[in-house]
Specification:
Chain lengths: 127, 588
């Protein structure tokens, strides 16, 4: 058992499940999407990315790439949120919500690919 | 990703995760903690406000309670935030600083810097193992000739001060023991650009190990070794080391040369010296009674040479075993062996210093040698003195003694190796010159002096091939005849001669000494020249630039561009129609 891999798998899968939790629901309904969940996704994804720093294997580099993609998507989503609500001072509208959700949907696909890569890597191991 | 960056990134995982966790917990707490706005209504910080607050608190900037005055719940959490994030920052910064100071990391950094320097070297380089006096002199001479070198040495100070020294090219230095094959490989032994390995460490054993390693790991490389003991020398040759340089033997040969033909010795001195130094004067070694103080490797090698010229020799050495061995050999009959050190006047007088013509002070101790020279000079001011100079730091002292010939091992080795590597034809030239009669050397010397004047010449070899003499090859290909004399014409003013003398021509393994000006050049020839640096530049013009060569060969200045070429051809055709014979005559 490789502890490094287990810890990384934990954060990667947690990122995917949280991401799904945030994404699920009607696209333009602010009540269906919790801001705490978005925060948790970002933090967990950040940790998963940092855990792949300095990995010189091909698979490690791929995983770093996919989680960086997810991070870019999630950061965009949170910037949109902060811009509309905190900078412009408007209340959350269905328009804005659907933008945020579609961005987080992209992040979910990136996280999904990460998990698939993780499964491939695990199944390729002999023991 | 390079090894160093991945090493840093890997080590930074934990500090960064701790920072992320610290921030995450603090932000979440600030959002959850209940507060009031300016009207007293219940209010929660947004993630945006919380991130702002934590950011300026964690970095100890501290803007205060923004946007509304905090409630007690918020203040409690702010306390936790302060301790959590500030400690997390200190921890992470400390970790990163200690990582940068980690010896392993620094080594990795230096190694990657060295690798970059190696990659930046254009063309080939020569790996010098051991950067003592010899290595230093060699690196200096080779970089002067625009040849790149790389140094490996196990002395940290030497490698660290390498960038501070004033070489004309950057010399990458690798810190490591050259006996370790792994280190040699890292220093660039197996690099395709590595053309030669020079093993000039102080120990013969190390040099042997380097030679073996180089021959095994990079078989087609040229290996040059320094060796002072005969058994190592044979061993080095046994597996194909190209050149083994023994300072004592080399000096003994030079000494013999000076003894038999002062002119030849002078020629040798000029042609192998550092370019642009002042011309040296000839040395006349007298025949008669010689005294050798110190019968070690140096003394016995010189003795062998003196024996050949049938002079009487007295040896002074403190070793009784050496005397017995000496007296037992039949060929030593007639020569004395006195037990003593040589630096006291008594021994020297017994040895006959006042009537002798020459004295060799050849012990391995510089103070003894200096003392011998001083005492001997007092007894007999006309003595021809050969001094063995061991440590470079004593250079000024030996120069002050006015010894006629000074043997400095590192200088001799550097000179020989430089000649071997920079102008291999020069060795063949000197070997061939040795078999000529003495007047030949005199004529050659006066020719070189007449052409070059006051300073030592540069030596270069002209290879008549596509890469080095493009224009020359093109013209030869057309069937025109170019003679050696044409190359000596100045491409700016063809009536003038450039300051260069052709020393030797090599064609199909045949060597021709001092080729005359009327010899026609063929493709594949190698010609050894000596001359001033500006003559070398002029010659490079005529061998590579078609215009210059055309100018030397004819009076025509041919145009380069397509349109002008066509116009020129048209004009020439018209001209030829009028006087075809004359034109053809001019072309030759």
């Amino acid at each position: 058992m490789n502890r490094e891999k287990v810890v990384f798998s934990f954060f990667m899968i947690l990122a995917l499940t949280l991401n799904f939790g945030f994404y699920a629901g009607e696209v333009d309904n602010p009540n269906h999407h919790n801001v705490y969940e978005l925060f948790a996704v970002i933090i967990v994804n950040l940790i998963a990315t940092v855990l792949k720093f300095g990995d010189r294997s091909q698979m490690g580099a791929m995983l770093l790439a996919t989680s960086l993609v997810a991070l870019v998507q999630l950061f965009s989503a949170s910037i949109v949120w902060a811009y509309v609500v905190n900078i412009q001072g408007n209340p959350m509208t269905p328009d804005t919500m659907s933008t945020i959700i579609s961005l987080s949907g992209g992040a979910m696909i990136a996280n999904f690919i990460s998990v698939i890569l993780l499964i491939i890597e695990t199944s390729m191991m002999r023991h | 990703m390079s090894l160093v960056t991945s090493l840093i990134m890997r080590q930074m995982r934990v500090p960064i995760i701790i920072l992320i966790m610290g921030y995450a917990i603090s932000i979440l707490g600030m959002v959850i903690a209940p507060g009031f706005d300016d009207q007293g209504n219940p209010w929660h910080m947004s993630f945006f406000d919380a991130f702002y607050f934590v950011s300026y608190t964690a970095t100890t900037i501290g803007f205060g309670e923004i946007p509304y005055t905090f409630s007690n719940a918020q203040r409690t959490w702010a306390l936790i935030t302060i301790y959590l994030t500030v400690v997390a920052w200190f921890y992470s910064l400390g970790k990163i600083v200690s990582l940068v100071q980690d010896p392993l990391f620094r080594e990795a950094l230096k190694e990657s810097q060295f690798k970059q320097q190696l990659e930046r070297i254009p063309g080939t380089f020569i790996l010098i193992c051991g950067f003592g006096e010899t290595g230093h002199a060699l690196a200096n001479a080779l970089t002067e000739q625009n040849i790149h070198t790389v140094v490996i040495d196990e002395n940290k100070n030497i490698i660290q001060t390498l960038p501070l020294e004033n070489f004309s090219l950057v010399i990458p230095g690798y810190l490591g023991d050259a006996r370790d094959p792994e280190k040699l490989i890292r220093a660039g032994l197996q690099d395709n650009k590595c053309a030669a390995v020079i093993a000039v460490t102080a120990s013969d054993e190390t040099n042997l190990k380097i030679a073996v390693t180089s021959k095994l790991l990079h078989p087609d490389i040229c290996v040059v070794c320094r060796s002072e003991l005969a058994e190592f020398e044979d061993n080095m040759f046994s597996f194909g080391t190209e050149f083994v340089v023994n300072p004592f033997e080399t000096f003994a040969n030079i000494f013999a040369m000076a003894m038999h033909s002062p002119a030849l010795h002078l020629l040798y001195d000029w042609l192998t010296g550092v370019p642009n130094a002042d011309l040296t004067n000839p040395i006349y070694v007298k025949e008669g009674h010689w005294i050798i103080c110190g019968f070690g490797r140096f003394g016995s090698d010189l003795y062998k040479q003196l024996l050949k010229s049938d002079v009487q020799v007295t040896i002074i050495d403190p070793s009784i075993e050496k005397r017995d061995a000496f007296l037992n050999r039949p060929e030593n009959k007639g020569n004395d062996f006195i037990i003593g050190t040589g630096f006291d006047a008594h021994t020297l007088t017994v040895a006959g210093a006042s009537e002798a013509v020459g004295l060799v002070s050849g012990t391995d101790n510089d103070s003894n040698n200096l003392s011998i020279i001083m005492t001997a000079r007092e007894l007999n001011p006309d003595l021809f003195i050969v001094a063995r100079h061991n440590k470079k730091s004593n250079e000024k002292l030996f120069a002050a003694t006015n010894a006629n010939l000074i043997m400095q091992p590192s200088e001799i080795i550097a000179r020989k190796i430089r000649t071997l590597l920079v102008s291999p034809l020069m060795i063949a030239f000197l070997n061939k010159a040795r078999n000529q009669d003495p007047s030949w050397a005199n004529i050659t010397i006066s020719r070189i002096m007449g052409a070059l004047g006051e300073s030592l010449p540069s030596i270069w070899t002209l290879h008549v091939n596509q890469e080095e003499a493009r224009a020359l090859c093109q013209v030869l290909h057309l069937g025109r005849v170019i003679r050696v004399g044409n190359l000596l014409q100045d491409p700016r003013q063809k009536e003038n001669q450039i300051a260069a003398v052709p020393l030797m021509l090599k064609r199909n393994q045949k060597l021709l000494l001092m080729p005359t000006n009327d010899i026609a050049i063929k493709s594949g020839d190698q010609i050894l020249f000596c001359g001033t640096p500006s003559a070398l530049r002029s010659m490079q013009w005529s061998q590579n630039d078609l215009h210059s060569l055309n100018y030397i060969m004819t009076y025509e200045d041919t145009p380069d561009s397509f349109v002008w070429r066509k116009i020129h051809q048209f004009l020439k055709r018209n001209e030829r129609r009028h006087r075809p014979r004359q034109k053809r005559h001019l072309m030759k």
